[in-house]
Amino acid sequence: NAGVTQTPKFQVLKTGQSMTLQCAQDMNHEYMSWYRQDPGMGLRLIHYSVGAGITDQGEVPNGYNVSRSTTEDFPLRLLSAAPSQTSVYFCASSPGLAGADTQYFGPGTRLTVL
Amino acid sequence: GNSVTQMEGPVTLSEEAFLTINCTYTATGYPSLFWYVQYPGEGLQLLLKATKADDKGSNKGFEATYRKETTSFHLEKGSVQVSDSAVYFCALSDRNSGSRLTFGEGTQLTVNP
What we know:
The structure holds 2 protein chains of 2 kinds.
Chain A (H helix, E strand, L loop, with lengths): L3 E4 L2 E4 L5 E7 L5 E7 L5 E9 L2 E4 L6 E3 L9 E3 L8 E8 L9 E2 L3 E5 L1
Parallel strand pairs in A: 2-11
Antiparallel strand pairs in A: 1-3, 3-8, 4-5, 4-9, 5-6, 7-8, 9-10, 9-11
Chain B lengths: L2 E4 L4 E4 L4 E3 L1 E4 L5 E7 L5 E7 L5 E4 L2 E4 L9 E3 L8 E8 L8 E2 L3 E6 L1
Parallel strand pairs in B: 2-12
Antiparallel strand pairs in B: 1-4, 3-9, 5-6, 5-10, 7-8, 8-9, 10-11, 10-12
């Protein structure tokens, strides 16, 4: 199993550009989520999905869109990049929805918006 | 709402020293508690967890006990190694939040030889 994979590893954007961060998992997990990591703030939830076709907002959803057309893939779209979106982005998945399950994280995408 | 507070870092220790990283939480109901570790340049991975009061999670010499009376889940290790240098995150989830995790700020640990 590859686990959770993310592409790209690094990305530099200009203000106003759009892009999609890719996330895929090969563990047949129901739950997938996106977090952003900023210094001194831990990880904050952007969007999450409890299954194909179902998504919901997390703590900091503004400026981001997601979709979940398959169990495996959960892309994150930045509609019009802003410098405040400079961060490290992590995708995670877990097998269940009850809350006690381990979450598996991808290696992260480091995004810089100029 | 849910929240997690970790001791401020960074923490610098010598090899074989005793480690404690404090974590306290606020949550509705009975949360599950986690410690995740992030090694340099990598994603997070689960270090240990506890799902009910008085449970002790342990892994790789690290331990943490779920204390409901003090709403705490402090991480301890008796003798740290240089390879333990990483960022440690305390986190929780509860039945209302499903699999959504609430994280603390993270504590950077550096262990010197």
